[in-house]
Amino acid sequence: MTTSTLTDKGQTTVPQEVREALGVKPRQQLQWTIRNDGTVVVRPQPSALELFASLPPRKRTEGRNAEREAMMKAVGKHAATEGT
Fold first, then answer.
1. How far apart are CA 65 and CA 46, in angstroms?
2. What span, in angstroms and rounded, lies between the C-alpha atoms of 21 and 42?
3. How far apart are CA 22 and CA 45, in angstroms?
4. Buried b / exposed e across 47-75, counting CB within 10 Å, b at 16+?
5. 3-state class of 1 per DSSP?
């Protein structure tokens, strides 16, 4: 069992064994959950960078694709009439 001491300011050092098991890095936030039976669950909060692009991109709707194609045709016609 790993232990740590609570200071007068309510701070403690997370033991190295626990940090390694959780895979946490310095300055990373931890989420604390107190259960009804008095046990505490500690989970690392992922950083914004870790969450970036973690969800699949939204699927484009048919309406957006049709709008995009119409715009491309209009740009092409405009370019053809301008000679560019």
1. 34
2. 12
3. 10
4. eeeeeeeeeeeeeeeeeeeeeeeeeeeee
5. coil
pTM of the model: 0.52
Distance CA 4, CA 32 (A): 16
- Amino acid letter, residue 57: P
Amino acid identity of residue 34, one-letter, is I
DSSP-assigned letter for residue 71: H
- Which residues are CB-contacts of 23 (< 8 A; sequence separation ≥ 6)? 44
Residue 51 has pLDDT above 70, yes or no: no
Write the single-letter amino acid at 43.
Answer: R
Tokens of 59: 């699927």
